[in-house]
Automatic annotation (TrEMBL):
Residues 13-339 form the FAD/NAD(P)-binding domain. One of its GO terms (molecular function) is NADH dehydrogenase (quinone) (non-electrogenic) activity. It is an enzyme of class 1 (oxidoreductase). It comes from Maudiozyma barnettii. Residues 391-456 form the External alternative NADH-ubiquinone oxidoreductase-like C-terminal domain. This is NADH:ubiquinone reductase (non-electrogenic). The keyword Zinc does not apply. Keywords: FAD, Flavoprotein, NAD, Oxidoreductase, Transit peptide.
Length: 458
Protein backbone atom coordinates (compact mmCIF):
# COMPACT_ATOMS: atom_id res chain seq x y z
CA UNK A 1 0.00 0.00 0.00
CA UNK A 2 1.11 3.56 -0.63
CA UNK A 3 2.87 5.24 2.28
CA UNK A 4 0.49 8.22 1.97
CA UNK A 5 -3.28 8.63 1.70
CA UNK A 6 -4.95 10.50 -1.17
CA UNK A 7 -4.88 13.78 0.76
CA UNK A 8 -1.10 13.44 1.27
CA UNK A 9 -1.27 12.42 4.94
CA UNK A 10 1.13 9.64 5.91
CA UNK A 11 -0.05 6.04 6.24
CA UNK A 12 1.82 4.72 9.25
CA UNK A 13 3.51 1.35 9.43
CA UNK A 14 2.16 -1.10 11.96
CA UNK A 15 4.29 -4.17 12.61
CA UNK A 16 2.63 -7.10 14.38
CA UNK A 17 4.87 -9.81 15.84
CA UNK A 18 3.13 -13.19 16.02
CA UNK A 19 0.29 -15.17 14.47
CA UNK A 20 -1.27 -16.57 17.65
CA UNK A 21 -4.39 -15.71 19.61
CA UNK A 22 -3.53 -12.06 20.28
CA UNK A 23 -2.32 -11.25 16.75
CA UNK A 24 -5.21 -12.97 14.98
CA UNK A 25 -7.92 -11.31 17.05
CA UNK A 26 -6.25 -7.92 16.43
CA UNK A 27 -5.97 -8.64 12.70
CA UNK A 28 -9.56 -9.77 12.43
CA UNK A 29 -10.95 -6.47 13.71
CA UNK A 30 -8.24 -4.05 12.56
CA UNK A 31 -9.06 -1.68 9.69
CA UNK A 32 -6.07 -2.65 7.55
CA UNK A 33 -6.69 0.14 5.05
CA UNK A 34 -5.60 2.69 7.67
CA UNK A 35 -2.07 1.33 8.13
CA UNK A 36 0.71 -0.39 6.26
CA UNK A 37 0.48 -3.64 8.17
CA UNK A 38 3.39 -6.09 8.30
CA UNK A 39 2.96 -9.37 10.20
CA UNK A 40 6.16 -11.16 11.24
CA UNK A 41 6.08 -14.66 12.70
CA UNK A 42 8.04 -17.91 12.28
CA UNK A 43 4.68 -19.70 12.06
CA UNK A 44 2.64 -19.10 8.89
CA UNK A 45 -0.51 -20.43 10.52
CA UNK A 46 -2.68 -19.86 13.54
CA UNK A 47 -2.84 -22.78 15.99
CA UNK A 48 -6.02 -23.45 17.97
CA UNK A 49 -4.24 -24.50 21.18
CA UNK A 50 -7.31 -25.56 23.26
CA UNK A 51 -7.62 -28.71 21.13
CA UNK A 52 -3.90 -29.40 20.68
CA UNK A 53 -3.89 -32.21 23.28
CA UNK A 54 -6.49 -34.10 21.19
CA UNK A 55 -4.13 -34.32 18.20
CA UNK A 56 -1.20 -36.61 19.14
CA UNK A 57 -3.61 -39.51 19.73
CA UNK A 58 -5.69 -38.83 16.60
CA UNK A 59 -8.98 -37.72 18.22
CA UNK A 60 -8.63 -34.61 16.06
CA UNK A 61 -6.41 -34.16 13.04
CA UNK A 62 -3.63 -31.62 13.61
CA UNK A 63 -4.42 -29.83 10.31
CA UNK A 64 -7.98 -29.21 11.51
CA UNK A 65 -6.76 -26.84 14.21
CA UNK A 66 -4.29 -24.97 11.99
CA UNK A 67 -5.46 -22.01 9.92
CA UNK A 68 -3.03 -20.60 7.32
CA UNK A 69 -2.34 -16.97 8.19
CA UNK A 70 -2.72 -16.04 4.51
CA UNK A 71 -6.33 -17.32 4.57
CA UNK A 72 -6.98 -14.87 7.37
CA UNK A 73 -5.11 -12.01 5.68
CA UNK A 74 -6.68 -12.44 2.26
CA UNK A 75 -10.08 -11.60 3.76
CA UNK A 76 -8.77 -8.19 4.85
CA UNK A 77 -9.21 -4.99 2.89
CA UNK A 78 -5.98 -3.31 1.84
CA UNK A 79 -2.67 -5.10 1.62
CA UNK A 80 -1.18 -6.90 4.59
CA UNK A 81 2.37 -8.23 4.20
CA UNK A 82 3.33 -11.45 5.98
CA UNK A 83 7.01 -12.32 6.52
CA UNK A 84 7.96 -15.75 7.84
CA UNK A 85 10.71 -14.81 10.28
CA UNK A 86 11.66 -14.42 13.92
CA UNK A 87 12.10 -10.94 15.34
CA UNK A 88 15.47 -11.06 17.10
CA UNK A 89 16.21 -7.47 18.13
CA UNK A 90 14.04 -4.48 18.86
CA UNK A 91 15.39 -0.95 19.02
CA UNK A 92 12.63 1.06 20.72
CA UNK A 93 14.56 4.33 20.48
CA UNK A 94 15.03 4.29 16.71
CA UNK A 95 11.86 2.29 16.11
CA UNK A 96 13.24 -0.59 14.13
CA UNK A 97 13.45 -4.34 14.48
CA UNK A 98 15.77 -6.97 13.11
CA UNK A 99 14.14 -10.08 11.70
CA UNK A 100 15.73 -13.38 10.63
CA UNK A 101 14.13 -16.00 8.40
CA UNK A 102 14.63 -19.78 8.49
CA UNK A 103 17.60 -19.48 6.10
CA UNK A 104 19.37 -16.95 8.35
CA UNK A 105 18.62 -14.06 5.97
CA UNK A 106 18.20 -10.87 8.00
CA UNK A 107 16.23 -7.69 7.39
CA UNK A 108 15.65 -4.53 9.33
CA UNK A 109 12.12 -3.13 9.46
CA UNK A 110 11.15 0.35 10.58
CA UNK A 111 7.88 0.80 12.37
CA UNK A 112 5.66 3.59 13.62
CA UNK A 113 3.75 1.22 15.87
CA UNK A 114 4.80 -2.22 17.02
CA UNK A 115 2.60 -4.86 18.63
CA UNK A 116 4.33 -7.60 20.59
CA UNK A 117 2.20 -10.74 20.62
CA UNK A 118 4.97 -13.32 20.54
CA UNK A 119 3.45 -15.54 23.26
CA UNK A 120 5.76 -17.50 25.54
CA UNK A 121 7.69 -20.76 25.52
CA UNK A 122 7.45 -23.89 27.66
CA UNK A 123 9.41 -23.64 30.87
CA UNK A 124 11.62 -26.33 32.37
CA UNK A 125 12.70 -24.41 35.50
CA UNK A 126 16.25 -25.35 34.37
CA UNK A 127 15.67 -28.92 35.50
CA UNK A 128 18.50 -30.92 33.94
CA UNK A 129 17.65 -33.25 31.06
CA UNK A 130 14.16 -31.91 30.32
CA UNK A 131 14.91 -30.14 27.02
CA UNK A 132 16.89 -33.16 25.75
CA UNK A 133 14.43 -35.90 26.68
CA UNK A 134 10.90 -34.58 27.17
CA UNK A 135 8.26 -33.61 24.64
CA UNK A 136 6.38 -30.35 25.23
CA UNK A 137 2.81 -29.79 24.15
CA UNK A 138 2.80 -26.20 22.96
CA UNK A 139 3.34 -26.14 19.19
CA UNK A 140 2.13 -28.21 16.22
CA UNK A 141 5.50 -29.96 15.88
CA UNK A 142 5.26 -31.11 19.53
CA UNK A 143 2.10 -33.00 18.63
CA UNK A 144 3.77 -34.66 15.62
CA UNK A 145 6.78 -35.62 17.74
CA UNK A 146 4.63 -37.09 20.48
CA UNK A 147 2.55 -39.09 18.01
CA UNK A 148 5.70 -40.56 16.44
CA UNK A 149 7.19 -41.39 19.83
CA UNK A 150 3.99 -43.10 21.05
CA UNK A 151 3.57 -45.13 17.84
CA UNK A 152 7.24 -46.19 17.87
CA UNK A 153 7.02 -47.30 21.48
CA UNK A 154 3.85 -49.29 20.83
CA UNK A 155 5.44 -51.15 17.91
CA UNK A 156 8.71 -51.69 19.77
CA UNK A 157 6.82 -53.12 22.75
CA UNK A 158 4.76 -55.38 20.46
CA UNK A 159 8.02 -56.75 19.02
CA UNK A 160 9.31 -57.81 22.45
CA UNK A 161 8.47 -60.99 24.40
CA UNK A 162 5.54 -60.54 26.73
CA UNK A 163 7.74 -60.97 29.86
CA UNK A 164 10.53 -58.67 28.67
CA UNK A 165 10.88 -55.91 31.34
CA UNK A 166 11.70 -53.36 28.62
CA UNK A 167 8.12 -53.69 27.42
CA UNK A 168 6.57 -52.13 30.53
CA UNK A 169 9.22 -49.42 30.47
CA UNK A 170 8.37 -48.44 26.86
CA UNK A 171 4.67 -48.42 27.72
CA UNK A 172 4.90 -46.02 30.68
CA UNK A 173 3.65 -42.60 29.57
CA UNK A 174 4.48 -39.89 32.11
CA UNK A 175 2.95 -36.40 32.00
CA UNK A 176 4.62 -33.84 34.28
CA UNK A 177 2.53 -30.84 35.41
CA UNK A 178 -1.01 -30.97 36.75
CA UNK A 179 -2.15 -27.69 35.21
CA UNK A 180 -4.90 -27.82 32.56
CA UNK A 181 -2.43 -28.78 29.79
CA UNK A 182 -1.06 -31.77 31.73
CA UNK A 183 -4.51 -32.93 32.89
CA UNK A 184 -6.01 -32.73 29.40
CA UNK A 185 -3.00 -34.52 27.90
CA UNK A 186 -3.09 -37.34 30.46
CA UNK A 187 -6.86 -37.66 29.91
CA UNK A 188 -6.44 -37.93 26.13
CA UNK A 189 -3.69 -40.55 26.51
CA UNK A 190 -5.83 -42.66 28.86
CA UNK A 191 -8.84 -42.33 26.49
CA UNK A 192 -6.62 -43.55 23.68
CA UNK A 193 -5.70 -46.63 25.70
CA UNK A 194 -9.23 -47.33 27.00
CA UNK A 195 -11.13 -46.67 23.78
CA UNK A 196 -8.79 -47.39 20.87
CA UNK A 197 -5.70 -49.42 21.81
CA UNK A 198 -7.75 -51.92 23.81
CA UNK A 199 -9.37 -52.89 20.48
CA UNK A 200 -6.35 -52.66 18.18
CA UNK A 201 -3.62 -53.96 20.50
CA UNK A 202 -5.36 -55.56 23.51
CA UNK A 203 -2.21 -57.24 24.86
CA UNK A 204 -0.24 -54.02 24.65
CA UNK A 205 -2.99 -51.81 26.05
CA UNK A 206 -3.12 -53.90 29.25
CA UNK A 207 0.49 -52.99 30.00
CA UNK A 208 0.24 -49.26 29.33
CA UNK A 209 0.42 -47.02 32.38
CA UNK A 210 -0.34 -43.29 32.18
CA UNK A 211 1.10 -41.31 35.10
CA UNK A 212 0.34 -37.69 35.94
CA UNK A 213 2.99 -36.10 38.16
CA UNK A 214 2.29 -32.87 40.07
CA UNK A 215 4.61 -31.15 42.55
CA UNK A 216 1.82 -29.51 44.59
CA UNK A 217 -0.78 -31.24 46.80
CA UNK A 218 -3.43 -30.88 44.08
CA UNK A 219 -3.92 -30.40 40.36
CA UNK A 220 -5.76 -27.63 38.46
CA UNK A 221 -5.03 -24.90 40.97
CA UNK A 222 -7.03 -22.24 39.14
CA UNK A 223 -10.29 -24.16 39.69
CA UNK A 224 -12.60 -24.17 42.69
CA UNK A 225 -11.88 -26.77 45.42
CA UNK A 226 -15.03 -28.80 44.59
CA UNK A 227 -14.02 -29.19 40.98
CA UNK A 228 -10.44 -30.09 41.93
CA UNK A 229 -11.60 -32.85 44.27
CA UNK A 230 -14.09 -34.15 41.73
CA UNK A 231 -11.43 -34.24 39.00
CA UNK A 232 -8.82 -35.93 41.17
CA UNK A 233 -11.29 -38.71 42.08
CA UNK A 234 -12.38 -39.03 38.48
CA UNK A 235 -8.81 -39.26 37.21
CA UNK A 236 -7.90 -41.96 39.72
CA UNK A 237 -10.97 -44.00 38.71
CA UNK A 238 -10.03 -43.70 35.05
CA UNK A 239 -6.81 -45.65 35.81
CA UNK A 240 -4.42 -42.71 35.51
CA UNK A 241 -1.76 -43.02 38.20
CA UNK A 242 -1.98 -39.57 39.84
CA UNK A 243 1.15 -38.67 41.79
CA UNK A 244 0.67 -35.54 43.90
CA UNK A 245 3.35 -33.82 46.02
CA UNK A 246 5.84 -35.31 43.58
CA UNK A 247 8.35 -32.78 42.35
CA UNK A 248 10.54 -33.68 39.36
CA UNK A 249 14.19 -32.85 40.03
CA UNK A 250 15.97 -34.39 37.07
CA UNK A 251 15.39 -36.22 33.82
CA UNK A 252 17.46 -38.94 32.24
CA UNK A 253 16.95 -40.65 28.87
CA UNK A 254 14.55 -43.18 30.42
CA UNK A 255 14.12 -42.29 34.11
CA UNK A 256 12.85 -39.22 35.94
CA UNK A 257 14.06 -38.46 39.44
CA UNK A 258 11.39 -37.07 41.74
CA UNK A 259 11.27 -35.81 45.28
CA UNK A 260 8.42 -37.02 47.50
CA UNK A 261 8.43 -35.88 51.15
CA UNK A 262 12.11 -34.90 50.75
CA UNK A 263 12.95 -38.42 49.57
CA UNK A 264 14.35 -39.13 46.14
CA UNK A 265 12.55 -41.71 43.96
CA UNK A 266 12.92 -42.84 40.37
CA UNK A 267 10.17 -43.27 37.79
CA UNK A 268 11.10 -45.09 34.57
CA UNK A 269 9.31 -43.84 31.46
CA UNK A 270 8.91 -44.62 27.77
CA UNK A 271 7.27 -41.32 26.76
CA UNK A 272 7.70 -38.14 28.79
CA UNK A 273 5.41 -35.15 28.25
CA UNK A 274 6.40 -31.89 29.95
CA UNK A 275 3.68 -29.34 30.84
CA UNK A 276 4.88 -27.25 33.78
CA UNK A 277 3.85 -23.85 32.41
CA UNK A 278 5.49 -21.05 30.45
CA UNK A 279 8.32 -18.50 30.51
CA UNK A 280 9.14 -15.42 28.39
CA UNK A 281 10.87 -15.89 25.03
CA UNK A 282 14.33 -14.44 24.29
CA UNK A 283 12.90 -11.54 22.26
CA UNK A 284 10.71 -10.57 25.23
CA UNK A 285 13.59 -10.80 27.68
CA UNK A 286 15.85 -8.75 25.37
CA UNK A 287 13.29 -5.97 25.07
CA UNK A 288 12.74 -5.95 28.85
CA UNK A 289 16.51 -5.72 29.29
CA UNK A 290 16.72 -2.65 27.02
CA UNK A 291 13.96 -0.96 29.04
CA UNK A 292 15.19 -2.34 32.36
CA UNK A 293 14.52 0.91 34.25
CA UNK A 294 10.80 0.18 34.10
CA UNK A 295 10.63 -3.43 32.88
CA UNK A 296 11.36 -5.07 36.20
CA UNK A 297 9.31 -8.28 36.18
CA UNK A 298 10.88 -11.55 35.03
CA UNK A 299 7.46 -13.06 34.28
CA UNK A 300 6.70 -10.85 31.28
CA UNK A 301 6.44 -7.38 29.77
CA UNK A 302 4.81 -4.73 31.92
CA UNK A 303 2.11 -2.72 30.19
CA UNK A 304 -0.34 -0.01 31.21
CA UNK A 305 -4.14 -0.05 31.10
CA UNK A 306 -4.11 0.81 27.42
CA UNK A 307 -1.75 -2.13 26.75
CA UNK A 308 1.14 0.24 25.96
CA UNK A 309 4.58 -1.06 26.86
CA UNK A 310 6.07 0.71 29.88
CA UNK A 311 9.13 2.60 28.69
CA UNK A 312 7.94 2.86 25.06
CA UNK A 313 4.31 3.93 25.51
CA UNK A 314 3.98 5.98 22.33
CA UNK A 315 4.98 3.27 19.87
CA UNK A 316 4.95 -0.26 21.35
CA UNK A 317 1.97 -2.29 22.55
CA UNK A 318 2.11 -5.77 24.05
CA UNK A 319 -0.62 -8.36 24.54
CA UNK A 320 -1.11 -12.00 25.47
CA UNK A 321 1.31 -14.43 27.05
CA UNK A 322 4.38 -12.21 26.58
CA UNK A 323 2.97 -9.75 29.13
CA UNK A 324 2.49 -9.80 32.86
CA UNK A 325 -0.16 -7.43 34.16
CA UNK A 326 -3.18 -7.10 36.36
CA UNK A 327 -2.94 -10.67 37.65
CA UNK A 328 -4.40 -11.94 34.38
CA UNK A 329 -3.67 -15.60 33.56
CA UNK A 330 -1.85 -16.35 30.32
CA UNK A 331 -4.88 -17.64 28.42
CA UNK A 332 -6.28 -17.46 24.91
CA UNK A 333 -9.33 -15.73 26.36
CA UNK A 334 -7.20 -12.82 27.65
CA UNK A 335 -5.05 -12.54 24.49
CA UNK A 336 -8.17 -12.57 22.29
CA UNK A 337 -9.92 -9.79 24.21
CA UNK A 338 -6.72 -7.71 24.25
CA UNK A 339 -6.39 -8.08 20.46
CA UNK A 340 -9.97 -6.88 19.90
CA UNK A 341 -9.38 -3.95 22.25
CA UNK A 342 -6.20 -2.91 20.42
CA UNK A 343 -8.00 -2.87 17.05
CA UNK A 344 -10.19 -0.07 18.40
CA UNK A 345 -7.17 1.74 19.88
CA UNK A 346 -5.54 1.70 16.44
CA UNK A 347 -8.72 3.09 14.86
CA UNK A 348 -8.56 6.04 17.27
CA UNK A 349 -4.78 6.46 16.89
CA UNK A 350 -5.30 6.75 13.15
CA UNK A 351 -7.78 9.58 13.69
CA UNK A 352 -5.37 11.31 16.11
CA UNK A 353 -2.49 10.96 13.64
CA UNK A 354 -4.62 12.41 10.83
CA UNK A 355 -5.55 15.38 13.00
CA UNK A 356 -1.93 15.81 14.00
CA UNK A 357 -0.90 15.94 10.36
CA UNK A 358 -3.59 18.52 9.60
CA UNK A 359 -2.45 20.68 12.51
CA UNK A 360 1.02 20.92 10.96
CA UNK A 361 -0.17 22.23 7.58
CA UNK A 362 1.09 25.75 6.91
CA UNK A 363 -2.38 26.90 5.76
CA UNK A 364 -3.98 26.14 9.12
CA UNK A 365 -5.63 29.01 11.03
CA UNK A 366 -5.57 29.56 14.80
CA UNK A 367 -9.28 28.72 15.05
CA UNK A 368 -8.86 25.48 13.09
CA UNK A 369 -5.91 24.54 15.29
CA UNK A 370 -8.00 24.97 18.43
CA UNK A 371 -10.73 22.93 16.84
CA UNK A 372 -8.29 20.08 16.09
CA UNK A 373 -6.97 20.14 19.65
CA UNK A 374 -10.53 19.83 20.99
CA UNK A 375 -11.22 16.88 18.67
CA UNK A 376 -8.02 15.17 19.79
CA UNK A 377 -8.87 15.67 23.45
CA UNK A 378 -12.35 14.31 22.86
CA UNK A 379 -11.00 11.14 21.21
CA UNK A 380 -8.43 10.49 23.96
CA UNK A 381 -10.98 11.07 26.70
CA UNK A 382 -14.03 9.33 25.28
CA UNK A 383 -12.98 6.90 22.58
CA UNK A 384 -9.95 5.25 24.16
CA UNK A 385 -11.16 3.69 27.41
CA UNK A 386 -8.85 1.48 29.46
CA UNK A 387 -8.76 -2.24 28.72
CA UNK A 388 -11.21 -4.20 30.86
CA UNK A 389 -11.01 -7.96 30.86
CA UNK A 390 -14.31 -9.84 31.05
CA UNK A 391 -13.79 -13.28 32.56
CA UNK A 392 -16.28 -15.72 31.05
CA UNK A 393 -15.13 -18.93 32.67
CA UNK A 394 -12.71 -21.84 32.41
CA UNK A 395 -13.17 -25.28 30.93
CA UNK A 396 -11.11 -28.44 31.02
CA UNK A 397 -11.47 -31.88 29.49
CA UNK A 398 -10.86 -34.62 32.07
CA UNK A 399 -11.28 -37.78 29.97
CA UNK A 400 -13.96 -40.40 29.17
CA UNK A 401 -16.13 -37.75 27.47
CA UNK A 402 -16.34 -35.68 30.64
CA UNK A 403 -15.43 -32.04 31.27
CA UNK A 404 -15.49 -29.52 34.10
CA UNK A 405 -16.42 -25.87 33.77
CA UNK A 406 -16.50 -22.73 35.86
CA UNK A 407 -18.69 -20.09 34.27
CA UNK A 408 -19.48 -16.47 34.95
CA UNK A 409 -22.84 -15.47 33.52
CA UNK A 410 -24.35 -12.04 34.29
CA UNK A 411 -22.03 -11.70 37.29
CA UNK A 412 -23.04 -15.07 38.79
CA UNK A 413 -20.76 -18.10 39.17
CA UNK A 414 -21.84 -21.51 37.91
CA UNK A 415 -20.12 -24.90 37.85
CA UNK A 416 -20.52 -27.90 35.59
CA UNK A 417 -18.83 -31.16 36.35
CA UNK A 418 -18.74 -34.51 34.69
CA UNK A 419 -22.22 -34.69 33.18
CA UNK A 420 -22.62 -35.44 29.46
CA UNK A 421 -24.02 -31.90 29.21
CA UNK A 422 -20.68 -30.50 30.49
CA UNK A 423 -18.87 -32.38 27.73
CA UNK A 424 -21.33 -31.19 25.08
CA UNK A 425 -20.96 -27.66 26.41
CA UNK A 426 -17.14 -28.01 26.22
CA UNK A 427 -17.44 -29.07 22.56
CA UNK A 428 -19.85 -26.25 21.64
CA UNK A 429 -17.66 -23.60 23.29
CA UNK A 430 -14.53 -24.79 21.47
CA UNK A 431 -16.33 -24.96 18.14
CA UNK A 432 -17.56 -21.42 18.65
CA UNK A 433 -14.01 -20.28 19.45
CA UNK A 434 -12.53 -21.59 16.16
CA UNK A 435 -11.17 -18.71 14.10
CA UNK A 436 -12.64 -19.77 10.75
CA UNK A 437 -15.62 -21.66 9.34
CA UNK A 438 -13.09 -24.04 7.80
CA UNK A 439 -11.65 -24.90 11.25
CA UNK A 440 -15.13 -25.26 12.75
CA UNK A 441 -16.19 -27.66 9.98
CA UNK A 442 -12.99 -29.69 10.10
CA UNK A 443 -13.10 -30.12 13.89
CA UNK A 444 -16.82 -31.04 13.72
CA UNK A 445 -16.08 -33.60 10.99
CA UNK A 446 -13.22 -35.07 13.06
CA UNK A 447 -15.55 -35.52 16.02
CA UNK A 448 -18.11 -37.23 13.71
CA UNK A 449 -15.39 -39.45 12.21
CA UNK A 450 -14.26 -40.36 15.72
CA UNK A 451 -17.82 -41.23 16.68
CA UNK A 452 -18.35 -43.56 13.69
CA UNK A 453 -14.86 -44.93 12.97
CA UNK A 454 -12.78 -44.27 16.10
CA UNK A 455 -9.44 -42.51 16.25
CA UNK A 456 -7.14 -41.93 13.32
CA UNK A 457 -4.47 -44.59 13.82
CA UNK A 458 -1.81 -43.36 11.38
P1 LIG B 1 0.54 -17.50 20.99
O1 LIG B 1 -0.84 -17.91 20.64
O2 LIG B 1 1.45 -18.51 21.57
O3 LIG B 1 1.20 -16.88 19.70
C1 LIG B 1 2.53 -16.42 19.68
C2 LIG B 1 2.92 -16.16 18.24
O4 LIG B 1 4.17 -15.47 18.20
C3 LIG B 1 3.12 -17.45 17.45
O5 LIG B 1 2.59 -17.28 16.16
C4 LIG B 1 4.63 -17.59 17.38
O6 LIG B 1 5.07 -18.33 16.27
C5 LIG B 1 5.04 -16.12 17.27
N1 LIG B 1 6.43 -15.84 17.65
C6 LIG B 1 7.20 -16.47 18.57
N2 LIG B 1 8.42 -15.90 18.64
C7 LIG B 1 8.44 -14.88 17.75
C8 LIG B 1 9.42 -13.93 17.35
N3 LIG B 1 10.64 -13.90 17.88
N4 LIG B 1 9.08 -13.03 16.38
C9 LIG B 1 7.84 -13.05 15.83
N5 LIG B 1 6.88 -13.92 16.18
C10 LIG B 1 7.16 -14.82 17.12
N6 LIG B 1 -6.10 -20.84 26.85
C11 LIG B 1 -7.43 -20.73 27.05
O7 LIG B 1 -7.93 -19.63 27.29
N7 LIG B 1 -8.25 -21.83 26.96
C12 LIG B 1 -7.78 -23.06 26.67
O8 LIG B 1 -8.52 -24.02 26.61
C13 LIG B 1 -6.36 -23.19 26.43
N8 LIG B 1 -5.84 -24.40 26.13
C14 LIG B 1 -4.50 -24.51 25.90
C15 LIG B 1 -3.98 -25.76 25.56
C16 LIG B 1 -2.64 -25.91 25.32
C17 LIG B 1 -2.09 -27.27 24.98
C18 LIG B 1 -1.78 -24.78 25.41
C19 LIG B 1 -0.30 -24.93 25.14
C20 LIG B 1 -2.28 -23.54 25.75
C21 LIG B 1 -3.65 -23.39 26.00
N9 LIG B 1 -4.20 -22.15 26.34
C22 LIG B 1 -5.55 -22.03 26.54
C23 LIG B 1 -3.33 -20.97 26.47
C24 LIG B 1 -3.33 -20.17 25.14
O9 LIG B 1 -2.93 -20.99 24.07
C25 LIG B 1 -2.36 -19.00 25.23
O10 LIG B 1 -2.68 -18.21 26.34
C26 LIG B 1 -2.46 -18.16 23.95
O11 LIG B 1 -1.96 -18.91 22.87
C27 LIG B 1 -1.68 -16.86 24.08
O12 LIG B 1 -1.80 -16.13 22.90
P2 LIG B 1 -0.59 -15.23 22.36
O13 LIG B 1 -1.08 -14.56 21.13
O14 LIG B 1 -0.06 -14.42 23.45
O15 LIG B 1 0.54 -16.29 22.02
P1 LIG C 1 0.34 -24.30 34.63
O1 LIG C 1 1.35 -23.30 35.02
O2 LIG C 1 -1.09 -23.95 34.73
O3 LIG C 1 0.57 -25.65 35.44
C1 LIG C 1 1.84 -26.23 35.57
C2 LIG C 1 1.82 -27.23 36.72
O4 LIG C 1 3.09 -27.89 36.75
C3 LIG C 1 1.62 -26.58 38.08
O5 LIG C 1 0.54 -27.21 38.73
C4 LIG C 1 2.94 -26.80 38.81
O6 LIG C 1 2.80 -27.01 40.19
C5 LIG C 1 3.46 -28.06 38.11
N1 LIG C 1 4.93 -28.20 38.18
C6 LIG C 1 5.85 -27.24 37.93
N2 LIG C 1 7.10 -27.74 38.05
C7 LIG C 1 6.96 -29.04 38.40
C8 LIG C 1 7.89 -30.09 38.66
N3 LIG C 1 9.21 -29.89 38.57
N4 LIG C 1 7.41 -31.30 39.01
C9 LIG C 1 6.07 -31.52 39.09
N5 LIG C 1 5.14 -30.57 38.82
C10 LIG C 1 5.58 -29.34 38.48
O7 LIG C 1 0.73 -24.71 33.11
P2 LIG C 1 -0.17 -25.18 31.88
O8 LIG C 1 -1.10 -26.26 32.28
O9 LIG C 1 0.78 -25.45 30.76
O10 LIG C 1 -1.02 -23.89 31.51
C11 LIG C 1 -0.37 -22.70 31.04
C12 LIG C 1 -1.41 -21.61 30.81
O11 LIG C 1 -2.30 -22.00 29.75
C13 LIG C 1 -2.29 -21.37 32.05
O12 LIG C 1 -2.58 -20.02 32.17
C14 LIG C 1 -3.57 -22.10 31.72
O13 LIG C 1 -4.70 -21.51 32.31
C15 LIG C 1 -3.64 -22.02 30.20
N6 LIG C 1 -4.35 -23.22 29.71
C16 LIG C 1 -5.70 -23.25 29.88
C17 LIG C 1 -6.41 -24.39 29.49
C18 LIG C 1 -7.89 -24.44 29.67
O14 LIG C 1 -8.48 -23.41 29.99
N7 LIG C 1 -8.53 -25.58 29.47
C19 LIG C 1 -5.72 -25.50 28.95
C20 LIG C 1 -4.34 -25.43 28.84
C21 LIG C 1 -3.66 -24.28 29.23
Amino acid sequence: QSTTFKDGSPRKRLVILGTGWGAVSLLKKLDTTEYNVVVVSPRNYFLFTPLLTSTPVGTIDLKSIMEPIRHILKRKKGEVVYLEANATDIDPKNKHIKIVDNYKETRTLNYDYLVMCVGAESTTFHIPGVRENAIFIKEAYDSTRMKEKIFNNLERAAFLDIDDPKRKHLLTFVVVGGGPTGVEMAAELQDYVNESLCKWMPEISKDIQVKLVEGLPNILNMFDKNLIEYTQDFIKKSKIDLKLNTFVKGVDSDIITVEVNKEKQEIPYGVLVWATGIQPRDITRNLAQILSDVQTDRRGLLINEKLQLLGAESSIFAIGDCTFHGGLAPTAQVAYQEGLYLANIFKQLHKLDQLDWKSQLSSISERQLNDIKKQQEYIVKNKMPNFKYVYKGTLAYIGSERAIAELKIAGKDYQLRGSPFAFLFWKIVYLSMCVSIRNTLMVSMDWCKFYFFGRNSI
